[in-house]
Amino acid sequence: MIRYNGINHLAMVTGNLDRTIRYWRDLLGMRMVAGLGKPGYRHYFFEISAKDTIAFFEWPGVEPAEEKEHGRPVAGPAVFDHVSFGLETKESLWELKDRIAAAGFWVSEVIDHGFIYSIYSFDPNGIPVEFSWNVEGIDIRRNPNLSDVSPSEIAKEGPEPGSGKWPAVSEPTREEDRKVYPGQGSELFHGSRKDPRSA
After folding, report:
1. Total Cβ atoms within 10 A of residue 23
2. Spans of the chain, pLDDT less than 70
3. Structure pTM?
4. Total domains present in the chain
5. Domain span at residue 133?
């Protein structure tokens, strides 16, 4: 079975990486753990937790997105609503709310969702962000709560991954055919781009 260990990174876009660094590193307190770059290209990573990061590409000409209320339905092409970051303590929720407000950014009141308390805001790029604290004694990962009053037939199958729902792998990649190709940044950590055909 495939096992996941968190979100390796969320990849976002900015037209002003310096302002983005000020917000994510200096206001939110997320360490900057990688900075890939060369003329015309920058890609920086910030640590959310021991296993999770958020990254930003800086692309010339990118403008902040128009702010949309978190969770408000839209029509037409859409792929993203907001991202929520977990906080260890309820006190951190209030501390962060005050920091965001003091920095001049809009921030919501604390909202009780039953299993989490949340605040909502936007980063300088217009990215809708939520910060959530898990209510003590309620763990939806340990005890899933599927209380949709009108679930689809597929949702009624329950929280566990179902087997046999997709075609089985008939030709797995053989060990000798497993090649890893160099990508942007590999030369920064390995000294030079390595051609996998020479491995």
Report:
1. 22
2. 188, 191-199
3. 0.83
4. 2
5. 81-140
